[in-house]
Amino acid sequence: MSTRPAATLGAARTAVIVVDLVHGFVDEGPLASPRIAALVPTVARGLEDFASAGGRWLCLVEDAHPGDSPEFAAFPPHCLADTRASRTVGAVAAAARRPGLDTTWIRKATLTPRDAGLLDWARAACEALGPDRAIVVAGDATDLCLYQTAMALRLWANQPSVARSLGALRVVVGLDGAETFDLPVRTVGAAGALPHDGDLHHALFAHHLALNAVEVVAHVGWS
Asked: Is this prediction's pTM over 0.85?
């Protein structure tokens, strides 16, 4: 993990997705985590730099569950639709409104945004960005929603019909913009979920992304 290189991408040829930096994972509810909260200033600053370098394509993905979500069999109720918990935190939302950015908001009722409009947005972005295009995925959690988002893009782009019609697509994850929560055994009863070692899952799923040709780098900079 400590030896991953940094990457510098052309902002005008890159799209960015920020996954689930919502209040329900940052500062309220049973799955809020200080590890996720620590991502907020880094991701917000990265979006500001992206805009300043001429970036345009941005997508903010938000967890937004109905009250009867089947997902609550695995996780305690969280990020209910139409509540503050399902909204992107202020610093990231403010950065997403920077002049020059064309921001799309996707609200998803499950772990993955694949069926909530992600691939339609990705196709439009790829068609607009031209050759040597890339999509950078940031946010949380490395092993859950971020993983599902990055893998949905990678597997979609791997389809021969997509590759023939759109050309190659780089999917990139910067480790300084990704994190997951930690849930020790001693606290698991109160949370109503299985234990979750944050360091282990962050490293393991970053490795699995790299195994699937997602470019896992230390940091993404812009030119």
From this structure: yes
Task: Evaluate the CA torsion angle 199, 42, 32, 115 in order and state its sign.
Answer: negative
Tens digit of each residue's pLDDT (9 = 90 or more) over 129-176: 989 899 999 999 999 999 999 999 999 999 999 999 999 999 999 999
Give the residues across from 172 on adjacent strands: 136, 215
170-179 and 102-108: which strand pairing? unpaired
Nearest to 57 by CA among 125, 114, 9: 125
The tokens describing 127, both together, are: 């068609």
Distance, CA of 190 to CA of 96 (rounded, Å) = 35
Q: Does residue 2 sit within a domain?
A: no
CATH number at residue 59: 3.40.50.850
Domain count, the chain: 1
DSSP label at residue 196: B
Domain ranges, residue 58 = 7-222
Please indicate, yes or no, if residue 141 is contained in any of the structural domains: yes
Q: Is residue 70 in a domain?
A: yes
Measured torsion, CA atoms of residues 186, 189, 192, 195, in degrees rounded to the nearest 10 = 30
pLDDT tens string 62-111: 999 999 999 999 888 999 999 999 999 999 999 999 999 999 999 999 99
17 φ, ψ to 5°?
A: -120, 130
Q: Quick check: 180 and 39 in contact, CB under 8 A?
A: no
